[in-house]
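DM from R.C. (forwarded with permission)

"hey, sorry to bug you on a friday — could you get me a structure for this? deadline for the figure draft is monday and I only need the backbone to look sensible"
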Amino acid sequence: IKREIYSEYCDTNYAFMIIVFGVLFKLVSLLIDVLELYLLQVQGTESPVIHFFAKATEMVSSYLIMLLLLFLANGWTIFFQKLDDMELFLPISVALGVLKLIMVGLSRLVKEDQHFFHAFDGWVGFVLILFNAILFSYYAYLIFDNYERITADKKTKQFYTILSIIAIWYFCTFPASYL
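My reply, with the result:
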């Protein structure tokens, strides 16, 4: 009996793990940015490989947090606990993450130095903004759909409301910072 109680309370908290990995990838991205700036000061030239890894880890970080928000909006940890209930959702989200990384790589290949102001300048930035707008629309659909399924639990509705406000801020930071 003790073992069953222990296993019930000590299951792996995947939502927490996703947040931790998202923050760790962001930290690695910032450390790579600092290394890149140091090398730029010492050598006087930019390393495309280091820059790509900095942007790629930053994109992985934002992607993990965005994925967590979409999972929570879909009802994960509230209506179901296991991710195997989302057989179609997981491969599509992984494919979208790979697509975002490809877009980061393309942004480095097609940059024009005389008109280059940031990593997502030009058509790559507009595609990523459109991508984030589509994900935000899907997120809003999931939140409104699941909000109706929550019946009498006031704390769950309050959690969903706070999650919605935070996610709206998060989804709007990317387009606002690159427009």
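R.C.: lifesaver. The chain is about 75% helix and 0% strand.
me: no worries. The chain has a mean pLDDT of 76.
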